[in-house]
Amino acid sequence: MAIRSNQKARTRQALLDGAARVLADGTAEPSMDQIAEAAQVSRATAYRYFDSSSEVVWEVMSDRAIADVDAVMAAAGNDITDRVLAAEEAINGYLFDDPDGARAFERAALDRSLRGMAQDTDRAARRLGYIDAALEPIADRLSHSERRSVRHALALAMGSQAVPAMLDTCRLDVDEARSATRFACRTIATEASRLARAGASVTS
């Protein structure tokens, strides 16, 4: 049984690695045939492990490593704007470096939602973890509603949805897009700091 289980794990990993190679070659919407060929398995075998090519792409993109949040925040220091911009860089930096991959992830995530397969942890967990860490020094000086407003406003400027919004809807190039997301994050951080100062003066 252990041998069979190991083989299944290797085949599944081969499919994920194959999809990653196809995405890296610039194919934004790989088919199951392309993924199976890259993994050197049959199309029928691929479908025994994943229901669709979108499922493979979603898992590949979800597992992509990004910088450790504690290390990022330690390097940023205690200034809220610096911390928020560091979070933006960690999240948007790797997404805008691979816009086709980000689009592929977004398509796969939407496909999961439309097929009723989405989970609560599918989407915002990583970006919200960075945002919460960035705001931690002033969190206790913001009201509950203020924290939620700042947190969710920042979530609009970070993540895979920002890629099609900036590049496709607004027709910006990558540099312009990153300038816009950083401007949004800087502006929200400035407002968060103002709210924190007001909260501190009320309680002092």
Explain the overall architecture.
Keywords: DNA-binding. One of its GO terms (molecular function) is DNA binding. This is Putative TetR family transcriptional regulator. There is one protein chain. By secondary structure, the protein is mostly helical. It folds into two domains: about 60 residues, Arc Repressor Mutant, subunit A (Orthogonal Bundle), CATH 1.10.10.60; about 140 residues, no CATH class. The chain is about 75% helix and about 0% strand. It is built from eleven helices and no strands. Helix 6 packs antiparallel against helix 11. The longest helix has 30 residues. The N and C termini lie far apart (about 65 Å). The model has no long low-confidence stretch (mean pLDDT about 85).
